[in-house]
């Protein structure tokens, strides 16, 4: 009797688990409608610098290329100014809100110098990011691997980007800056 009962229970557990996994995927898709895109373009300024962060659209579909661009523009009195920074002055950390997944933006940290010309923005496109450890759950690892390849799964994304650099003053001293802006966008599932 115990053997017959366990033969029926095992398939029921598997069926219930499969339905739960399917519903979990649908739950993320359904939760997208709980969010509304506020701004696909954002701009902040500090002293003689303007930082801009933008994406070309409010909504994408899974599989479409998502273009995100950052700009840093010098607006001061001098014709040019030098800034020091890590591998790039631009950071692109993001968060997918329906899953509550944060994706960091790690960067090499050499000390590089870039010359900015007044009125000519320095631009960089987002090229994917992320990292994970063996202790992270499989769903998060798969999600980050997709983001690293710029293959965004469906969801509602917020990017709190920033430019982190130091302006090199005429006397050789430097003034640090960290100027941030936030954008958001949706990625709808393929039908």
Task: Give the distance, in angstroms, between the N- and C-terminal Cα atoms.
Answer: 46 Å
The fraction of residues in strands falls at 35-45%
Largest sheet properties: 8 strands, mixed
Gyration radius, to the nearest Å? 22 Å
SSE class: alpha+beta
> Could you report the average pLDDT, rounded to the nearest whole number?
87
CATH class of the largest domain: Mainly Beta
- Portion of residues within helices: 10-25%
The fourth-level CATH homologous superfamily of the largest domain is: ApaG domain
What name is given to the CATH topology of the largest domain?
A: Immunoglobulin-like
How many strand units?
12
Count of separate structural domains: 2
How would you spell out the order of helices and strands?
Answer: HEEEEEEEEEEHEE
Please tell me what the overall shape is.
Answer: elongated
**Uncertain parts:** 1-26
- How many DSSP helices? 2
CATH architecture of the largest domain: Sandwich
Signal peptide: 1-24
Protein name: Lipoprotein
Organism: Planomicrobium stackebrandtii
Keywords: Signal
